[in-house]
Amino acid sequence: MDLPIFFADYFGTRTLVGIIAIIHVWINHAFAVGMIPLVVGVEWWAHRTGRQEWDALAHKILGVCFIVTTTVGALTGVGIWLSTALVNPYAIGSLLRVFYWAWFSEWVVFVAEVSLILVYYLTWKRMTGLRKSRHIRIGVILGLMSWLTMAIIVAILGFMMNPGSWLEQRDLLAGFTNPIYLPQLLFRTAAALTMAGSLALALSLAFTDRDSPLRTQAIKLFSGWSLFWLAPTLIGGLAYHHVIPQAMLNNMPVAFGTQAWQDLYGQLVHFTFLAVVAVALCSLWGLWQPLRTNPLVWIVPVLLLTGLIGYFERTREFIRKPYAIGYYMYANGIRVDEVPYLVKTGVLANCSWTTHRRVTEQNKEAAGRDLFMVLCSRCHTLNGINSVGENLAKMYPDQSTWSPAAIESFLKNIHGARPFMPPFIGTTDERGALAAYLATLGNRRDIPPPVAVAAFNE
Amino acid sequence: MEPVIPKDLPLGLPAPFWLLEFLLLLSFALHILFVNLMLGGSLMVLITEIRGLRMPDWDRISYEIAKTITVNKSLAVVLGVAPLLSISVLYTMQFYTANALTGHVWMLIVPLLIAAFLLSYAHKYSWDRLAHSKGVHLTFAGGATALFLFLPLIFLSNVNLMLYPEHWRSIGSFWDALTLANVLPRYLHFLAASVALTGLFLAVYFGRERFFVSLELQSLRREQLVRSFYGIAFGSTLAQFVLGPLLFLTLPAHTISTTLVVILTVAVLPLGGLAVWWLWREVQATSPGRRLISIVAALTAVISFMVYARHDVRETALAPHRDLMKARTAEYLADVRAAQDYLVMPGGLGGKPLSVGAQLFQRKCASCHALDTRLVGPPLVEAARNYAGNPEGIILWALKPGRNRTDYPPMPAQEMARDDLLQIASHILKTTGNL
Q: pLDDT for A400-442, tens place per residue?
């Protein structure tokens, strides 16, 4: 309402955040949280047993992780801040006002993590001989820091699952004591370690000679590592899955029972088993037939586990609906306490960045377009992913019958029919205007598409 | 043009204003220091490698500078997060407005920085392999440098645009934001600072005797090299005496405070002049490096004052806006509170009291079903005909809907308590005269 609207028709603004976040989580888990313990472990073992070739292999694997985490990993992390500030600035701005110190502490750990990985990687070849054990200790601290950043972030995510605490105490402790915190942390930690094993295996195929004994041993070691962490991944995943409804029942009974969520939730178990079985088979294959392996086989477990984490993220996000911050702010950035006032005086009259300030007979459809931008465009596109056009076509298969009146009566109770949707917020005139605009999406193309940035021109 | 006065988020700051200001300035100073070294380093790598085509010593030096970029760029990014968080908290509405107005280019920061960093790595790690294809190798450095030169413009356009709410309505894109009065002078000032700091940093870096010996250069002597880096620092710091006033003169008048003028004339000018003088003496010295501590002290003071001066411009520009915003927010929140009892629920009922069944019907069914018109689903008068005197039939259907009409979308299952469904079914049959 008070900020210009960033709008990406087709991909949708949420997709932007989603893509950046998934890449970031994938790199964070597979290349950092899971991989550092594995690399440090190999380095320690190579040092104890005097196996130079293992030390060199660990260094090369770390090199890849170093490059990936300090480029794509670091920048997608910043990208989450940049994109959420564009997509839902009211929500991220509010969370920041309350959790500034949590994120600030996380940042301090993050600075330590980046400094340590620079030291750890860049001094690998210099800190040898007597200084080797000190180098290994740096690696251990680095591994702890990587894990700690994740543990703090998971608490912040957990807090968002516990909306009651936002209204009552606004205390991060609620994030740590949330029932989903420990299962989620266990699941992420174990999945990260498993993914790191698969990834290290794929990388060792690039860094070792065919038919060399080192390759055989590496494949066996990394397969065994993945297999070892698979059981905790499964336990963590199922525990997480088990506590999700519990957390949700406490917080958001309204979402429970909606078909879309049930589908998502039901599929989780299948997906978890599929991923675990696929990783298990690949790992067993590696142990049994180390020489007959194809790099692609090792990419599959990593992708499946990433997909699994992504799936959990989606379920977690879905539970928040129709809110961005439980009971406090709807997904479109309008606060619950504002609703009565906006219903009385209108959304447009209180906006700083719309083309029209009130609905008239003449501007009905164009004002409706402004309302779409303010109320719907945070989650919906016009013609792309999760578009209103597509959703309306599902409801009214014959486009010629799209009538403003029918759409308006749907909007009137949209939060009842679709519990994951916020209620329509605005005056009855505005509801009519939005319905009039939505009806034009079916068969009329004379209303120009919205521009991301608009100024009053009335 | 009229300034835009947004309503602020109705949440207090997480700490006293001064503390957040202090953290913003401190973390920003650290961040920008490494950004300067990253950008300046990248330029120096390019220039020294080109010089190295004729004189191999410079190629060796170029490689050593390239190695520092790896570290400096990582620290620049990680140190950038704290000022980003702090500015988002302190200037939420102004900063987010600027972000949204330049949105698409603002998001480009992520892929462009990734590309720049990957090019830097490709450049550093292919030094030996591409020793005989210098053209390709220099393309990596050139690409990274071009990106490093472009990216600050995105940040600058944002932190500049946020200062001018009176221009917000006329800004439609990043390119518009670039045309605002003093983006270009700010950019040149920043570039000169990057080169100056990098020159000083490299003078120290290559001035370390044991390190220099380990490079095993053929003809270049340490003093000679250090002097040339001092020369670069000297030249670019001297240039600031032109670029600085240019920036000052292009500042909109309402952003200039007495404090700013005092800081610039009493502290920055004399200290900067002192630094330039000492740098010049180093350039001429036979064994340079003796005035290093004085130079670093003077420049640290200058940078601290400049960081504060920059903040003073922001505060002078935005303090009145913040007050207007505060007043508008307070007024709005008072209205919001007053309206709390206007409606209990959006789309609330009002009018004559409804039966439980009618209320539930309104909430759960009315979006898709009306009495005698087609909405998403069929009109009730039509549908209820099949269930005359049979509410149980409606309940069973609602729990597990089939599909009777292919010209309608399928109905989703309604998970509700049986009692509620019975109320709804009775209501439907009653209103359609089928009870």
A: 768 888 899 889 888 877 878 899 999 999 999 999 999 988 7
B109: nearest CB among A82, A413, A416: A82
Q: Which residues of A touch B362 (CB under 8 A)?
A: 413, 416
Strand partners, A325: A329
Mapped onto helix, strand or coil, the DSSP state of residue A147 is helix
Say yes or no: A118 contacts chain B, CB-CB below 8 A.
yes
Determine the Cα–Cα distance for residues A421 and A437; give it in Å rounded to an integer.
19
Mutate to test the interface with A, among B92, B112, B158 (most CBs of A within 10 A): B92
- The domain that contains B380 carries what CATH number? 1.10.760.10
Range of the domain at B402: 356-431
Please, which residues 171-210 of chain A have a Cβ atom closer than 8 Å to chain B? none
**pLDDT (tens digit per residue) in A315-339:** 777 777 788 887 789 999 999 889 9
Q: CA B90: distance to chain centroid?
A: 14
* Chain B residues in contact with A457 (beta carbon < 8 A): none
Provide the residue range defining the domain that includes A395. Answer: 337-443
- C-alpha angle A92-A94-A95 in degrees, rounded to nearest 5: 65
| Residue contact A453–B114, C-beta within 8 A | no
Domain boundary among B164, B180, B196: B180
User: What CATH number does residue A342 fall under?
Assistant: 1.10.760
Strand A329-330 to A323-325 pairing? antiparallel
Rounded-to-integer distance, Cα A86 and Cα A5, Å: 8
pLDDT in tens, A45-61: 999 999 999 999 999 99
The full 3-state SS of B308-348, as one line of letters, equals HHHHHHHHHHHHHHHHHHHHHHHHHHHHHHHHHHCCCCCCC
Instruction: Note whether A416 contacts B340, CB cutoff 8 Å.
Output: no
For residue B364, list chain A residues with Cβ-Cβ distance below 8 A: 416-417
Q: Do A255 and A144 belong to one domain?
A: yes
Distance CA A38, CA A193 (A): 8
Flag whether residue A11 sits within 8 Å of chain B, measured between CB atoms: no
- Interior/surface letters B375-389, b for 16+ CB within 10 angstroms, e for the rest: bbbbebbebbeebee
Taking only residues 51 to 70 of chain B, the set having a beta carbon closer than 8 angstroms to any beta carbon of chain A reads 70
The string of pLDDT tens digits covering residues A189-208 is 999 999 999 999 989 988 99
Instruction: Give pTM, 2 decimals.
Output: 0.90
Contacts of A160 (CB under 8 A, 6+ apart): A95, A175, A320, A325, A326
Residues B56 and B71: their CA atoms lie apart, in Å, by 24
End-of-domain residue from the set B123, B157, B180: B180
Which residue is closest to B9 within chain A, CA to CA? A94
Mark whether A211 and A307 lie in a shared domain.
Answer: yes
Say yes or no: A15 contacts chain B, CB-CB below 8 A: no
Which of B9, B339, B363 lies nearest to residue A341, judging by beta carbons?
A: B339
CA neighbor of A163 nearest in space, from A100, A243, A253: A253
Size of the A and B interface in Cβ pairs below 8 Å: 221
Residue A4 in any domain: the answer is no
Measured between beta carbons, the chain B residues lying within 8 angstroms of A104 are 23, 82, 85
Residues of chain B with Cβ-Cβ distance to A99 below 8 Å are 14
Please give the tally of structural domains in chain B: 2
Average pLDDT over residues B233-262: 96
Q: How far apart are CA A7 and CA A16, in angstroms?
A: 11
- Chain A neighbours among B 224-283 (CB < 8 Å)? none
Rg (CA), chain A: 26
